[in-house]
Amino acid sequence: MRATVMYGAGDVRLEDVPDARLVEPTDAVVRVTSAAICGSDLWPYKSMEPSETGRRMGHEFIGVVEAAGEDVRTLEDGDLVVTPFLWSDGTCVFCREGLHTSCLHGGRYGDEGVDGGQGEAVRVPQADGTLVVLPVDEDDALMPSLLTLSDVMATGHHAALAARVGPGKTVAVVGDGAVGLCGVIAARRLGAERIFILGRHEARTALAQEFGATDVVSERGEEAVERVRELTGGLGVHSVLECVGYEESTRTAFGIVRAGGAVGRVGIPQYEALPMVAETFFANVTIAGGPAPARAYIEELLPDVLEGRIEPGRVFDRTGPLDEVPEGYRAMDSREALKVLVTP
Ligand SMILES: [Zn+2]
Predict the structure, then answer these.
(1) Which domains does the chain have, with CATH numbers?
(2) Which residues contact residue 213 at a Cβ distance below 8 angstroms, ignoring those fewer than 6 apart?
(3) Disulfide check for 241: which of 183, 195, 207, 216 has CB 3.0–4.6 Å away?
(4) Who's near 336: CB < 8 A, 6+ residues apart?
């Protein structure tokens, strides 16, 4: 079968690899019908050391169950399923607490022996605990929005929960990538009254406004902090969703949160230590976040997608076949494309 392999920074290839197959009795093999390139795929695309064996890529996909191991109870051949970006058993102490990202028997797509989602098919470990059956056909018009439940919509929701967004709150979203835009959707969905989007890419901040952002702040760094402070009577905002992961964007987030407020961090940290520890300490700021337990959120967000209350699939602005995956990485890395949907 064909699948995406990354061999180093800027070196992504489509290759023939061994077919996905059942290994453990708890596995399922899923034929991928749609997949996505993630902003987090761009970190290795920028910095991965050259590798002779390469790394299989992709952790956001929807597909059809083609085979299920003998211990799989909840899935049947032909089921259309969405996966969270990590696999998990659904039964360990952390999964039962809703923290599937810390599953004691879970792992990542693309790791040794596990396929990536940017390919024709995937061996999904712990299939019962991982996959969620979708009540639609594979050509349903909702597919882009359903695909965001794998990662970006769940991650935006996680950022909003970590930032304690709620009715009447003033919220700021740092970052106008797909996660930031989904963070706007999540904040609106949770009842935020005023939502700032911090970003300078006009098409993206315009989409953020359609998703419910009330104010666009295109300044960066200190100027952005001053601008948000000025627009909030000097106080700052109750909730900040940090959706980038750089030290500078984290400084911005900490600079605009008001005393007693909360910052939800979902950008993978590209820095060694948190900045501004004294300022955030003395202002009683809550700092929370991490990788989203998407598996815990899919069932909660799914009705809103199915009934059209949220349309996170609008973050996809490019669609192409598997052969265009390398071009998709290039386009996302150069910010020509916001998010790329792949149809194997
Ligand atoms: Zn678990």
Answers:
(1) 2-150+293-342 (3.90.180.10), 153-289 (3.40.50.720)
(2) 173, 184, 195, 196, 197, 205
(3) 183
(4) none
- Each residue of 264-308: pLDDT tens digit? 999 999 999 999 999 999 999 999 999 999 999 999 999 999 999
Q: What is the pTM (predicted TM-score) of this model? A: 0.97
CA of 91 to the centre of ligand 1 (A): 5
Residue 125 CA, ligand 1 centroid: distance in Å: 12
For ligand 1, the distance from its centroid to the CA atom of residue 52, given in whole angstroms, is 32
> 27 CA distance to ligand 1 centroid (A)?
15
The amino acid present at 327, given as its one-letter code, is E
CA of 101 to the centre of ligand 1 (A): 8
Using 50, 70 and 90 to split pLDDT, how confident is the model at 112?
A: confident
CA gap 124, 114 in Å, rounded: 7
pLDDT at site 115: 97
The amino acid that residue 134 corresponds to is L
Q: Compute the distance between CA of residue 162 and CA of residue 239 in angstroms, rounded to an integer.
A: 9
